Amino acid sequence: MEQTAGFWIAAAAATFFIGMSKGGIPMVAMLGVPILSIFIPPGMAAGLLLPMYILADAYAIWLFRGQYSLRNIRILVPAGAIGVLIAFVLVSRVPVEATKLVVALIGLGYLADALRKRLKRDYRARDADVARGLFWGALSGFTSYISHAGGPPYQAYMLPQKLPKMTFAGTTAIVFACINWMKAPTYVLAGQLTWDSLKQVAVLAPVALLGAWAGFRFTRLLPERLFFTLIYSALGLLCLKLLFEVGAAWL
């Protein structure tokens, strides 16, 4: 893999955005793989960045220590494990574009329903229930494994609960830390995560930690309403990005 100055700049930018997303600003995570894919194949970009996700996850868990929903974690982590296992078994049979399309439609459907409730002034919060959590959690694990798009299903389950922003962000950090650790062995088997990429991780690690710290500080400063407005906006942008990728692949 040729490591030009442009590659390192792109890798540092992608790593910083991943760190920020783990610090509580998930809307910037969607920039990581596309930026690095300018210089290397998307599969290799995903493999290179996975350790950055894991490292930033660990730091984010420490940053948000004590600020999480234990009930949601108990539901979503086992559900995510089921999703990762299903994806590992079916990955060769499920077109990536089909998965992206389903995720995008789920996210946009949720946003449409949220808008409908807002227009009707229905602001009731939903409880963390096992049935919904198992479904959306498994779907998050599945789509995260196949196309790093676990956010929309996860948010479709979590946002209706209207948790405080720091609890929402802390729970997100723990759930996706577990999912990303589950994905790591299969990335090694697929050749996406190698000793060479781990050497690059050592260079980029401080950037991931800096990004997580910056995201955490930014999350603390953001007003609650603005924080969730940005989350909803990011969800919409991610869904549109996935639809664009599907259209580009099928045309």
Q: Tell me the fraction of residues in β-strands, as a range.
A: under 5%
**End-to-end gap:** 30 Å
Number of helices: 10
- N-to-C SSE string, H for helix and E for strand: HHHHHHHHHH
Largest sheet: none
Mean pLDDT: 81
Globular, elongated, flat, extended or rod-shaped: what is the shape? globular
Residue ranges: pLDDT <50 for 5 or more in a row?
Answer: none
Helix-and-strand structural type:
mainly alpha
Proportion of residues in helical segments: over 70%
Instruction: Identify the quaternary structure here.
Output: single chain
Instruction: Tell me how many strands there are.
Output: 0
Output the radius of gyration: 17 Å
What does this structure look like?
With 251 residues, the chain is mainly alpha-helical. The chain is built from ten helices and no strands. Helix 3 (42-63) crosses helix 9 (195-221) and helix 4 crosses helix 6 (130-147). The chain is globular, with a radius of gyration of 17 Å.
